[in-house]
TrEMBL record:
Belongs to the YfgM family. Signal peptide: none annotated. The chain crosses the membrane at residues 28-49. It is found in: Cell membrane. The keyword Membrane applies. It comes from the Bacteria. The lineage of its organism: Bacteria, Pseudomonadati, Pseudomonadota, Alphaproteobacteria, Hyphomicrobiales. This is Ancillary SecYEG translocon subunit. GO terms for molecular function: protein-containing complex binding.
Length: 227
């Protein structure tokens, strides 16, 4: 399935209109998470790029780009070895960037537990810039939707789901999906409604929130609030 957000939402809504609710989450759940996580990766990538751009070190930079190329070619073990060397011997921003990229490669390999642990470790490291710590915690939170409990997702990212935080839209969406997956429709409705009510929510995030609110209403487990 191509991850075109608008066409994906239309397809889910067609399922809703055709009354085939029983299999909607089973069929679309992983794609809802995959489409949404592109926003998280993009936001986190922007934060990390800005950090890199402000701390360039040309010699180590070539090694980092070579490691990224290995990862892009799915040579994961070679990439991890190169990134581990950069983490230990790199200069400037590169040890932190190597840690972030290595955690991403672990997720790419399918080792979610290792990736979550690595992102959580970065998120708790006070020696790392706050924006990069938040990006790491956000990545851990999204991985925990499929690989953990709502409580674990909440512990990782709920404090970012507040007005003014750059990651609040992604945090609210992750918390809403984790609630939905756990079967807590009332809580899921609250999180998705908070996205809809925030006029600064990106259009694609707000559209997905509307779609999830429709799914929740159609489930009959958390009817829409009456005005």
């Amino acid at each position: 399935m191509a991850f075109n957000d608008d066409s994906f939402i239309r397809e889910v809504n067609e399922e809703l209109r055709s009354d085939q609710m029983k299999g909607v989450w089973r069929r679309f759940g992983r794609y809802i998470i995959a489409v949404a996580i592109l926003i998280v990766v993009g936001t986190a990538g922007k934060v990390v790029y800005e950090y890199w751009d402000n701390n360039r070190s040309s010699g180590t930079g070539d090694q980092f780009l070579a490691a990224m190329k290995l990862a892009d070619e799915n040579k994961n073990d070679e990439a991890l070895a190169a990134l581990d060397k950069l983490e230990k011997e790199g200069h400037g921003a590169y040890p932190v960037l190597a840690r972030m990229r290595a955690a991403t490669v672990q997720a790419q390999k399918g080792d979610a537990s290792a990736a979550i642990a690595a992102f959580n470790e970065i998120g708790k490291d006070n020696g790392v810039p706050a924006a990069v710590r938040d990006a790491a915690r956000m990545r851990a939170g999204w991985l925990l939707i499929e690989n953990g409990s709502y409580e674990q997702v909440s512990a990782a990212i709920e404090e970012m789901a507040v007005p003014g935080n750059a990651f609040r839209h992604s945090a609210r969406e992750a918390l809403g999906l984790a609630s939905y997956k756990a079967g807590n429709m009332a809580q899921a409705r609250q999180w998705f409604q908070s996205i809809v009510d925030d006029t600064d929510s990106p259009r694609n995030v707000a559209n997905r929130a509307h779609m999830m609110l429709d799914l929740i209403t159609a489930s009959g487990k958390a009817p829409a609030a009456q005005g």
